[in-house]
Amino acid sequence: MKQQTQTIGLIGGMGWESSKLYYERINTRVNEVLGGSHSAKILMVSVDFAEIEQLTISNNWNAIGDIIAKSAKQLEKAGAGIVLLCTNLIHIASEAIVQNTKIKFLHIANATGEAIQRRNLKKILLLGTKYTMEKDFYTKILTENYGLEIITPNEHHRNTIHTIIYTELLKGVFTEASKQIIKKIIENEQVNGVEGVILGCTELPILIKESDLSIPTFDTGAIHADKAVDEVIN
Question: Per the residue annotation, which of 56, 86, 87, 139 is the catalytic one?
């Protein structure tokens, strides 16, 4: 008989809009697998995003690493058996979690790479903050571990997406105008043979749905949450 073998630890608040979706998705998936009145065993530490945002703007990734390492240690002390960072970008500092805790850390890019590989796709568009699109902490995992060809939009479009994320999505604002802008960016890249798109900011799937596009989308938060459930149910 299947059962939950570990408690899932979540580091949230980056932003809280997507963090609540992790909680909902994990509980829903656990109930689907175990049935009855089962829900997930979850612990969450939620940070103040204003502090993270300022450190991001100043490129102080070490200080961000200190914050998320402290959060991970809180989860470990409280009894979590696995930890998830409920954001794409802040995985840039995720090594701080690995170095400062002994519990399993589930990287969002690995979960996403596995999901794309199962679809037998190769040429993938990555959308997210400019840091996620321009630095290699994310793309390196996808290319080296999963053999994917990762494409990002041009600089103007990267800046446009980044601005929408920081000035709207992370503040809980989701407009039709921004949806159409990002949809157009994706459609432009399809001309270059892109087979799917990674929504590499956990707020992006709130704005853009797969039904809005003609190619597969990869909702990184949902993929990450589902992978966590797979890890803790045996």
Answer: 87
Report phi then psi at 8, rounded to 5. Answer: -85, 130
Pairing of strands 82-85, 42-46: unpaired
Alpha helix (H) ranges present in the chain? 16-34, 49-57, 61-78, 95-100, 108-118, 130-134, 136-146, 155-167, 176-190, 204-207, 220-232
Q: Whole-structure pTM over 0.85, yes or no?
A: yes
**Predicted pLDDT of residue 17:** 87
- Nearest CA to 157 among 118, 185, 192, 198? 185
The answer to whether the CB of 144 falls within 8 A of the CB of 118 is: no
Render pLDDT for 3-23 as a digit per residue (tens, 0 to 9): 999 999 999 999 888 899 999
- Cβ pair 48, 14 in contact under 8 A: no
86 is catalytic: no
Give me the mean pLDDT over the 35-42 stretch.
97
In the block, which residue shows the tokens 């989308």? 217
Determine phi and psi for 11, rounding to 5 degrees: -105, 110
Q: Which two tokens stand for residue 2?
A: 């299947």
Q: Residue 56, exposed/middle/buried by CB under 10 A (0-12, 13-18, 19+)? A: buried
Among residues 201, 202, 217, 220, the one annotated as catalytic is 201
CA dist 153 and 121 (Å) reads: 19
